């Protein structure tokens, strides 16, 4: 039976959390995989913010066979699955079917999901309409603490992102990201804006843009929460020195975090070559999946005209 999450479920999860299967889903803003028992998730369920999060449980009697939870991206018409655990493929199929049905009912157009490339749940996701559109690598920083605070002579036009940067960032996105990824995440400005993950409201996050010769050539996003920090970079036609400076700047922003992750897409070859030399180690490979939701469109029909 698939049902919505009940308040009693969170209490059961608290007492029996050691028996729960691990979360299979990963989001770019929280590579630590998160937990249904985290403060932000708990509050998103039971405060007015609950409209941003929905959770379903697969249960058989008192047994929990699986859990799936989603949060909306920057647009409520785009959902990201950030928690998925299932005891078998049948439970996974049932949970993802329920999410898809709920998404169609609420007018959601896209569902995003990231799973370990070796996860057995990928086959189940494909059976219910998800397709893989990219690969992301998760790196962890293992360098010396002192490197994070080291001064670097880098670009002078790195500044905080402002609301007026949207069109410049979209141009950078179109230049730096391959067509297959843009097709999944958004070809138009509004689609791309709505598909971006917006993070938790309890996290700290910063965004910076690198501007040269009147155009934006680099973008940096840094997130920090509960001892974990992560960052990602998007760039086009930057030399290795500029990229290295951006990485070091990110490490300086996260200098107080004992665990630092860096998320890199497979098409960012220049960054991938740089990371090993800077003290990063690849710890996971994720497949990025998307599902387009078919929405019911009402056909026009004639009605009597009243005078």
Q: What is the β-strand count? A: 12
CATH class of the largest domain: Alpha Beta
At CATH level 3, the topology of the largest domain is Aminopeptidase
| Topology order in helix (H) and strand (E) letters | EHHEEEHEHEHEHHHEEEHEHE
Q: Find the structural class using helix and strand composition.
A: alpha+beta
As laid out across the biggest beta sheet, the strand order is: 1-2-3-4-5-12-6-11-10-9-8-7
Largest sheet: 12 strands, mixed
Helix fraction by DSSP (H/I, runs of at least 4): 25-40%
Which CATH-level-2 architecture of the largest domain? 3-Layer(aba) Sandwich
Average of the residue pLDDT scores: 83
Shape: globular
Beta fraction of the residues? Answer: 25-35%
| Number of domains as seen in the coordinates | 2
Q: Could you list the spans in which at least 5 consecutive residues all have pLDDT below 50?
A: 146-153
Count of alpha and pi helical runs = 10
Radius of gyration: 21 Å
**Name of the CATH homologous superfamily of the largest domain:** Gcn5-related N-acetyltransferase (GNAT)
Distance between the termini: 52 Å
Give me the secondary-structure topology:
Layout: E1 2-4, H1 7-15, H2 39-46, E2 53-60, E3 63-72, E4 78-86, H3 89-105, E5 110-116, H4 121-127, E6 131-141, H5 145-148, E7 158-160, H6 166-176, H7 179-185, H8 189-195, E8 204-212, E9 215-225, E10 228-235, H9 240-253, E11 259-265, H10 269-275, E12 280-292
Parallel strand pairs: 4-5, 10-11
Antiparallel strand pairs: 1-2, 2-3, 3-4, 5-12, 6-11, 6-12, 7-8, 8-9, 9-10
